[in-house]
Each structure stands twice: as structure tokens, then as C-alpha cells.
């Protein structure tokens, strides 16, 4: 840069010659230089302001665009993830209707090996085999000295086992944090809960997923972080469930039965208070599924939901109630029971000879097949099918368990008149005891349809009316009379008015026909009969007990006593006080002092 001198020599000399002031030339030059500096600084400041303005404009433009994107997007719940692990192991608890824990997650650790980091594989294999007896030392050593780099040793270990492995001191043996599913009550409610296992696994966490029962049905709910750990509340009562299982287990052994099941249902809400299927299992150590043979022989088979059977005479109350509802008969109407009843090549017989006729009430009390079949003939096949459908007996049960769809009722291919006759006394149509409990609850609660549920409800859930209040009361009176003076006399429980109906059905052969010595014995009961609160269904598979010098297989000798003992045990747990009559002293005069 060339500086302009403040006192230019040429101008100074010329000014001196003309007598001018030379200081004015210097002042003018200073002024001009200052003006140039001012213009340069102003241009520089304007440039900086322009750059800053552009920067602010771009920033506001980006913020506005992002706000527009957020306003136009669908809101989603954020998912918390641990650093380096996309697997979420959290799972909500499952509790009973009173908040008692049925299933929960427990913090634990897994054990794995980073084989390249191991110092002494032989010693590690030997010590691990001592800590975990199910592991084989030779197999571990082969894995440790092979070409593998990573090996899962145990998916979960106890704190004591973790300390013992830590004491081995091998840097190649590592622990990973995770959660395991724990069922603190063991086998209680095993078929209801189902069980859980691990899905995706990592060294830092593992995904816990349901495999059966409500664990599988509600898997999405239990794993959803949006629930913030809220538990799944079931309708079952843990104490009632445990008592029911104990009574049924003892009864099954006493009656030499192959299996047993029971359902206790609230008649107004459809809530299942207890559901038992025996034999059972421990969901903490869930057994493997059978790969051969009859799946119904597996302990995993839920007889209450998946087992569909011809349930026998427990269906008779439906035929009589429908006939009364549509005005064909009354309870006192006499029904022809002269047998055998012939229909083509079929012959329908009674267990005993009940004479030429019985009243409709006595048809239920004495359990007459012929009398029920004649009533079914009056009703007709189409009306019978419609009525049984209104009770929920012809469709899959909507109970919230993954196994429910497999308990689909087996209906006759052609619902003919003979089908209507046999179905009226429980043959020719197979259903589960959950179906039966739902139908009894709907018939006896005043005549309103209910839906079975395993989830806790608040208050009654009455659906459409299926029979009138009067017919419902008449049906309850008939069932009560059956216990007082009929085939279910062993079902009377002092203090609780129990009503019920027995059903004994021969088991069908896989090749056709029926067994002569294998039965399904069922007792369907309601208590208290004067003000129904609960329906209890008890079923035994192939029971046999010796009584009065004979082998007894009928429900009156097998299922009924077990149901009575169950009611005796669980009714107080349900808050039902026994109705005990107060004896009035006779022949005694009370006086005061």
C-alpha cells in the first residue's frame, strides 16, 4: 500500500511561493484520509450485518421446518433403550383380583464365556461342572478348546452360583444382567398363567415373552412400556384357586381318575374365580410339548378350556327350561317316559325304569333320558339349536387365553331330530366346561347372557335376556330339588343351598362307538340356589370308585362329593356366610329373675 504523505512537497513549495498557509494542506489531507477510513469501516460493518442476517434467517427457517414436521407427524410414545442394547426385558406383573402377585420379573444374571479370553479352559470346565451338575465337563472342555469364540453357559443363575463362578477367577467367564419370569406360587393357576421364555437375547439383556395362557394372550400389554408397569389384574382369587386345586387333586386320586378339571364362575359378571386342570405343572420349569401320542395326555393340556367332551345329563336342564320358556310345558306337566323310545334304528333308554310318566320337574330330578328326548321332540331341532346358541354353547369361548380357540365345540354335521333328542341329554354335542359354566350362569342368574372372562370386572355384565326371570327361578328350584332328593344328594352342603345336575357320559372311541367302562363324570352346580352367586362345574375323566361292593363311575358317586367338598371349602373364602337355622327350644319356659 502506498501511503499519501500528509505534507506533499510539490504542493508545499508551490504554496510557499504564492504565500499560502502550508498547514492547511496537511489538515485537508488528514480530513480526506479520515473520510476514507470511515467509508471502509462502514462497508465492513454492513457486510458483517448481512452475514449475520442470513445466518439468523437460515436458523429460523430450519426451526420452522422442524416444527411443521412435528405438527404433521403421528405422535408416538418414546421407547427407552439402554445404551448399546435395543432389547427391552421389562414385563408387567400379573396379580389376582385382590392384588396378590401371580407372576413377576426378578433381576438375575446370565453366564457366558468369551473363549479367547479364557486362561485355563480345563480348570474352568471342571469347576463349572461342579457348580452346575447338569453340565458335562467333557462337553464344556470341547467347546472351550474348539473354534468357537462365544458360548452361552446358563441363561440365568442364582446369586450363590454367580459367586461360585466368580471365585473360579477366569477372565473369560462373564456375567450379563437380565430379568427372569418368576411364578412365586409354583403350580397354582399354572394353566391360567401359561408361562414365559426368552425371545431375543443379548449379553446385557433378554426379551421375556409369553408362550401360553394369559402370558401369551396379553403379551403385547405386558411388554408395553406405555403402561408404566401397571399390572394385569385377573379375575381369579388366589386363595380360592389354591383351595380348589387341593380339593380336586385329592378327589381325583380318591376316585382313581385319569384327569380332572373345574371352573368357578360369578353368575352376574362372568368372571372366572378359579379354573383348575389336573394334572398340572410348575410354570417356573415348564415341560416340553409332546411330540408324539395324544396331546390331551400332556400336563400342558388345559382340560377346562381345550377339553371338549360330551357332558351328559347336565344338558337336560336346557331342554326343560326352553320348553317352559316357549310355553310348551310347565314344571308339573306329565311327560311320557315309557321306554325304550324308538327312532328308526336308534333306541333311547333310561338308567332305571321310572314308570310310564314323570312330571317335567321329576325328569330333571330322576335324570330321565326318555323324558328329556320327548321334550326335545316338542321343541324341534331348529329352535333347540337357536336356544343353545343363545347360551354360548355353539361358538368358541371368548375367554382371554391363547388356548381358547382350540376348544371349539363339536357340532353334529346334520342337526336332525335324532340329533336334537340325543343333544337334549348331552350326547352328540361336545363342549368345554367353560362353555357349560357360561350357559348355567346365563340360565340361572335371572336369565341374562354373560360372557366368560379371566380379567377382573367391576359390577355385573348382563347381556341380552335368554329366558324370563320366572323360568330362571323354576330352573333353580329344579336343580335344588335334584340335590335334595335326586341324583345329586351327595352335593348338599349344610348352610349353603346348593342346586345342581349330574352328568355321566360314555367316552367315545377313536374308531367309533363308545367305551363301556370309561366315562366323563360332571356335576354342574349353583350356590346359593335361592340367590345365585356362583356356578361350579367339576369334571372327572375316567373315574372309578368302589362303593357298596360295586365299581361306581357315575357323577353322583364321583364328581358330586368332590364338588360338595369344594363348595364347603371355598364358600367362606368368597365371603358367603352359611345360613344356619337357629333351633327354637321346645318345652322350656324362659323366665326372668
TrEMBL record:
GO terms for cellular component: plasma membrane. Keywords: Carboxypeptidase, Hydrolase, Membrane, Protease. Pfam families: PBP_dimer, Transpeptidase. Residues 88-223 form the Penicillin-binding protein dimerisation domain. Gene3D superfamilies: 3.30.450.330, DD-peptidase/beta-lactamase superfamily, Penicillin-binding protein 2a (Domain 2). InterPro entries: Beta-lactam/transpept, Beta-lactam/transpept-like, PBP_dimer, PBP_dimer_sf, PCN-bd_Tpept. It is found in: Membrane. Residues 262-552 form the Penicillin-binding protein transpeptidase domain. GO terms for molecular function: carboxypeptidase activity; penicillin binding. GO terms for biological process: cell wall organization. PANTHER family: PEPTIDOGLYCAN D,D-TRANSPEPTIDASE (PTHR30627), PEPTIDOGLYCAN D,D-TRANSPEPTIDASE FTSI (PTHR30627:SF1). This is Putative peptidoglycan synthetase FtsI. The gene is ftsI.
